[in-house]
């Protein structure tokens, strides 16, 4: 495979640790700590934050305080605060809290969609139609995540053409921001480059984001392949926490710190202050009561020459 | 930074776990287990193996049985069995065991070379001159590793020009196989691509290999950037074990399993059978008595659809 490597000058990160990360944790953070996490991410310069999920507390007790979190955070100007909504009922709750963006999700494979949300892909899309109609009068953007876009734990390989077709159907609903999720961590850099390039060629109107899991250690290499193909939007989680409770074999999310460190060293801007971000990781680790996978959190971002310590 | 991505069809791995890996461990494997490790790596298809180090047992008691290991392994035809030699005295011991290759090492920065081997770079090169002269009549290749090639824990950034100049001096001694070591794990993918491309342009006669440490999570992304620049030789360690005892802040080596998995998924051949390799990791973990960083060892190489298990 040969292509012209061309990286963007700026990469936008959406940190999903307050939602995708915390929902996979056994420890439930209290509302105040969730609010501090979101506020500290914004202060560190993270331009997009997935704050919470308006899923039923029956399914995810970790997110039962979605309203309180959304109405207690400080809204830093310029930051996009988004929330996950599984259905029109969740969207109704979400809209009352005035998010900048609501995110819906659908699987690239029928089996995973059934197991995940007990609906067909077609039924999911019908729900999105209603959510888009509800969001419009409030000026709230609707974005989508296509989960299992690079492979499904039930169906195996997902053809690129299915992902493009599903994205086109989302675009027809008025959704132009789409994230592709490698839910179980089976994407490889070549597949990622091909996917990004296919979207650029066939669906240039879509603002594409990528969301990788580090199940097999490939997440940062996948981000790099996407960046080298011109992709500039990624979803990552502080500390590398996360993993889907409904996707067998899913590992943690790509870590925001490790991604920001690597891109910054490459001379690509992210607007994020790494040291401030690492202080936020320290806060998160204290509240979770366990260590996190991020390597840069442990090693530190900058190599400090040993002699300089003397 | 823009360049034409062009990956090789075949990538050669040298597994350094029996030497670079085991020398960083507190547990000392017995000779029989070391021999089994080397033989199993060869059986799994690893084409190049760093078997041991002929360093003084005073410095590295882990390698005190270097002669016994070298003379006890089965020599699989086609596999290159190499040994590390720190000086002419080590080379003399090594030659008696008939390795295919002897590897010498020198730091890209004076301070690290002094701290590592208590010699100036110039003095190290003088020793290599003698080692090359000793190796020649026996038909043994001498290769070199330039350690701290991407950054030094004492001096910080190492200029690309210094690395090229040192490589040229090694080439003048008759050493044409050179590995660049990111000893403390500070390389970034852009720097790696620039380094590989500079070698291709300025020193095309050198067979370049790269050796990454995953201190900051960038090792596989660095390998990918090198592969995309046309590099086809890497040094990795089974399980991702290793890290230099004499380099403050060094993390483990890039894992052979994770690298082979990723490249195989990309359609790049390595000649290595992943499942056999993972059985060898299982053996290594049992002998070391602790877990290893490799992600593919934990997740498995192939995504097995859940339904297939029913």
TrEMBL record, chains A, B:
The keyword Lyase applies. GO terms for molecular function: hydroxymethylglutaryl-CoA lyase activity; metal ion binding. InterPro entries: Aldolase_TIM, HMGL, PYR_CT. It comes from the Bacteria. GO terms for biological process: ketone body biosynthetic process; L-leucine catabolic process. Keywords: Lyase, Metal-binding. The keyword NADP does not apply. Pfam families: HMGL-like. Belongs to the HMG-CoA lyase family. PANTHER family: HYDROXYMETHYLGLUTARYL-COA LYASE (PTHR42738). This is Hydroxymethylglutaryl-CoA lyase. It comes from Sulfobacillus thermosulfidooxidans (strain DSM 9293 / VKM B-1269 / AT-1). The lineage of its organism: Bacteria, Bacillati, Bacillota, Clostridia, Eubacteriales.
């Amino acid at each position: 495979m040969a292509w012209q490597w061309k990286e963007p000058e700026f990469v936008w990160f959406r940190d999903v640790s307050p939602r995708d990360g915390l929902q996979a944790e056994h420890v439930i953070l209290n509302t105040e700590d969730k609010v501090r996490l979101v506020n500290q991410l914004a202060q560190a310069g993270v331009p997009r934050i997935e704050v919470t999920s308006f899923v039923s507390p029956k399914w995810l007790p970790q997110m039962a305080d979605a309203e309180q979190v959304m109405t207690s955070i400080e809204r830093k100007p310029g930051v996009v605060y988004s929330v996950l909504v599984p259905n029109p009922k969740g969207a109704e709750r979400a809209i009352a809290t005035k998010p900048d963006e609501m995110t819906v999700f659908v699987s690239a494979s029928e089996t995973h969609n059934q197991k995940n949300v007990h609906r067909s892909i077609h039924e999911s899309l019908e729900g999105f139609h209603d959510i888009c109609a509800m969001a419009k009068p409030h000026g709230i953007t609707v974005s989508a995540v296509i989960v299992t876009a690079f492979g499904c734990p039930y169906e195996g390989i997902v053809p690129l053409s299915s992902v493009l077709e599903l994205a086109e159907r989302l675009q027809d609903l008025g959704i132009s921001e789409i994230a592709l999720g490698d839910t179980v961590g089976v994407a490889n850099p070549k597949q990622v480059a091909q996917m990004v390039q296919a979207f650029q060629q066939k669906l240039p109107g879509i603002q594409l984001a990528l969301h990788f899991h580090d199940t097999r250690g490939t997440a940062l290499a996948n981000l790099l392949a996407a960046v080298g193909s011109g992709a500039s939007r990624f979803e990552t989680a502080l500390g590398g926490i996360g993993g889907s409770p409904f996707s067998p074999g899913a590992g943690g999310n790509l870590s925001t710190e490790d991604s920001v460190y690597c891109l910054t060293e490459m001379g690509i801007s992210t607007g994020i202050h790494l040291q401030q971000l690492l202080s936020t990781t320290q806060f998160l680790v204290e509240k979770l009561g366990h260590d996190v996978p991020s390597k840069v959190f442990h090693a530190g971002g900058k190599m400090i020459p040993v002699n300089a310590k003397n």
